[in-house]
Amino acid sequence: MDQQGLAAAIGRSTSYVSTRMRGELPFDLNDVENIAIVLEIPYSQLIG
């Protein structure tokens, strides 16, 4: 999944996701939970 697809899936803009993927700002916990749901992986895989 590319950044544009991820952004659409979690209801954020592509620039929002891109900024966080570059490590300039952190994702908030709601975003992390939504990303886990979209990717069908346990939440703990993203924060552990």
TrEMBL record:
Q: Where is the Transcription regulator BetR N-terminal domain?
A: 7-47
This entry's Gene Ontology molecular function terms read: DNA binding
Pfam families in UniProt? BetR
Q: Which Gene3D superfamilies match?
A: lambda repressor-like DNA-binding domains
The identity of this protein, by name, is Transcription regulator BetR N-terminal domain-containing protein
Q: What is the lineage of its organism?
A: Bacteria, Bacillati, Actinomycetota, Actinomycetes, Mycobacteriales
